[in-house]
Amino acid sequence: MLFLSAREFKAEGTSVEHFTDEVLGSPIYGQVNDDDKVTVFKKAGTIGDLDDASDAGMLFGAIKADHVILYCHGYNNSALEAIHDSKMIETHLTGLGSNVQVIAILWASADKKTKYYSDQDVADKSAISIAQTPCVFLDYLAAQQEARGRGSGPEVCTKKIHILAHSMGNRVIRQACINLADKMRPGPPGFITNTWMVAADVVNESLDRGQPGATIVNMSSRVIVYYADDDAALRMSKVVNVRNGIVSYRLGHTGPRDLDNTERWVFAVDCDRFNNTVDGKVGHSYHVGGDEPSPLLAHIAAVIKKNKFVNPGKSVQEYHPRRFELQTDSKLWS
To answer: Is the pLDDT of residue 279 over 70?
Structure first.
């Protein structure tokens, strides 16, 4: 399992449990083996020379699948939990026929329920580090192109990059896109093929034109918001954010407040039918599944396969033509 981390790592070659909750100024890249041992890639070369010993070269060179999913975990998650969820997501999607490789984004969550407010601040700080990765990747692709011009470069990279974010991980992605847009105004359009926002712990107008989250939309070819009205964790989040002077429903609770204020490639998918079946009474972590993949992952696999938004069984036209209800029987999808 590959990772990029804004968390500090104590010592190379030891367990994934040696990630701390200290925020790094620049991300580190590496992989976690099946025994949870960590290898951090060394910075031993330069991107411009396409030295595979460089941290970026080793990360990108280790990607063999056609589709790359950057998975950003939520609040109150340890690095170990995030890695294991990433592995399960990759396993389930592969079992569903997707040629994918998941890279875990590890941000410096304190892994404590009592640290909700400080985790919001840490999420924004982690995003500064994480936002450097797309810049490095684009530099890497530019170096490949230059090398091809000299007749010595690899084949053109045709991999598709996707983002899957859960809960407060959506705050991390939102801020990372804002930081990237500041560096590369207005940000690389369509750099991300699909952004899947699950149980997003951000305000429900975040994706509106002119709002900070619009940077996610501008950089994505497609944005799909999965939400559930009976998500108990986000119901509590709405209450506790009053302390921050924010009185608003969360995006993962209602979906976008008004889809007419978003771009036409933003879709909302109601997951009320199964979120409590997958994640009990809380109904918040319904994106992975257990022995069987979550219906949400089955929908993601269908979107990857068809390279377009897939109607998940029921269009809620009375509310908006881009709002849908996910049916658990994929035979009903189109």
So the answer is: yes
